[in-house]
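Backbone-to-sequence.
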């Protein structure tokens, strides 16, 4: 577990215990459920927001702000997690020996044959925006990400829509000597 995740979990646990009324078992269970949903969001955020860099195999390329919501009795009744991508350019360009976001490798390594067909992802395809695919990392576990998405209420049809490779029309080429513009 990442240090950030561990710290978040400890703080939420502490606040859940301190904020819950000693006579209210229900408020304690609500706080535990909220904490679990936040923790379940971590594999998803890490898959879509972490990458292998020169210094760290699981480097966070996003920021996260967790807002715990309390009622008038100071009991935890909800939470909001706000994330923001710090390095959007990583999608199209990575430094030498670095990798793109984990989710792309997870999809390529973890998709079944049927999913590959459905998502327009040919077996063994090489993508210029996925450098160093031969490196295997612990973070390449697609099933963990998919399971976390289910726990967050992202059903399988919605996941399939997220993972589908969108086909785009070929771009116009300019300044090439091999024929007319397309």
């Amino acid at each position: 577990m990442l240090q950030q995740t561990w710290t978040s979990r400890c703080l939420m646990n502490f606040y859940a215990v301190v904020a819950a009324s000693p006579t209210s078992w229900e408020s304690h269970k609500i706080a535990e459920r909220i904490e679990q949903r936040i923790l379940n969001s971590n594999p998803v955020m890490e898959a879509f927001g972490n990458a292998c860099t020169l210094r760290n195999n699981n480097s966070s390329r996003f920021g996260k702000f967790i807002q715990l919501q309390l009622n008038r009795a100071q009991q935890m009744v909800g939470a909001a997690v706000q994330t923001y991508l710090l390095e959007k350019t990583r999608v199209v360009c990575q430094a030498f020996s670095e990798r793109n976001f984990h989710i792309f490798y997870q999809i390529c390594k973890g998709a079944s044959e049927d999913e590959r067909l459905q998502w327009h992802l040919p077996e063994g395809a090489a993508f210029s925006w996925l450098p160093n695919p031969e490196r295997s990392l612990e973070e390449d576990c697609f099933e963990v990400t998919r399971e976390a998405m289910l726990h967050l209420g992202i059903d399988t049809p919605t996941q399939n829509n997220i993972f589908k490779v969108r086909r785009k029309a070929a771009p116009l080429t300019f300044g090439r000597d091999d024929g007319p513009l397309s």
